[in-house]
Amino acid sequence: MAKDIKADEYITGSEVVNKVDRIGSLATLGNWAKEMEQMGHKFQHDGRGRRIYSEDDMKLLQQMNDLLGDRHTLKQAVDVTLGLTDKEAAEKSKKADTKSPAVVDTKMFEAQNKDLSEIKEMLAQVVKQNQQYHDENVKLQTQISELTDVTKKNAQLLQEPPKKKSWWQRHFGSDETDEA
Questions:
Q1: H or E, element range at 36
Q2: At 96, is the pLDDT very low, low, confident or very high (cuts 50, 70, 90)?
Q3: pLDDT (tens digit, 9 = 90+) per residue, 45-55?
Q4: pLDDT of residue 147
Q5: Tens-digit pLDDT profile for residues 134-169
Q6: Which burial class, exposed, middle or buried, applies to 111 when counting CB atoms under 10 A from its CB (0-12, 13-18, 19+)?
Q7: Cα–Cα dist 73/86, whole Å
Q8: pTM of the entire predicted model
Q9: Among the ranges given (6-10, 46-50, 122-126), the one the predictor scored with the smallest mean pLDDT
Q10: CA R_g for the chain
């Protein structure tokens, strides 16, 4: 450790992870700390360049933990915890954005574009399949309606009493009076 830092006054990252509920890992703690540093907060570092946390830092991290529990974003929690106004936060955010240039990975973009095109193709297939199912359902509905109508007509015919046929119609199929 550096000579001017007393070990009793500071907490290591792993101790912070154990004390603050939502952090859960050193990577999460690192993300929170980076966001705080971008907005102007200064952390102490040990002789190896690792962040060490004071009691005041712990209070800020605990306050951020509470705000994140209330469904704030990390950025909002940092702004509120550090007491920044919207204007100050916007200015510091602009400065932080200009300090670290974005690294563009063209292979990543190509892979994402390929994935998106595959997803679009799958969606087109799903839409086509849904349309086919819809057409089949319409045909089936039509057939069901026709069968229902035929069934109703048959039921009506069954309910009507049969017409009496003459002896001649029963045996020969036509009436002698029909031929005359």
A1: helix 26-38
A2: low
A3: 888 888 888 88
A4: 96
A5: 999 999 999 999 999 999 999 888 888 877 888 888
A6: exposed
A7: 14
A8: 0.44
A9: 6-10
A10: 40
**Residue 39 and residue 84 in contact, taking contact as beta carbons nearer than 8 Å:** yes
φ and ψ of 67, to 5 deg: -65, -40
Structure-block tokens of residue 122:
């799958």
Residues 6 or more apart from 131 whose CB is under 8 A from it? none
Cβ proximity of 23 and 60 under 8 Å:
no
51, β-bridge pairs: 45
From the list 58, 2, 5, the residue with the least C-alpha distance to 32 is 58
Residue 55 in tokens: 């009691």
**Which residues pair with residue 11 across a beta bridge?**
53
Beta carbons of 5 and 49 less than 8 angstroms apart: no
Helix (H) or strand (E) holding 24: none
Instruction: Report which secondary-structure segment, H or E, holds 86.
Output: helix 86-99
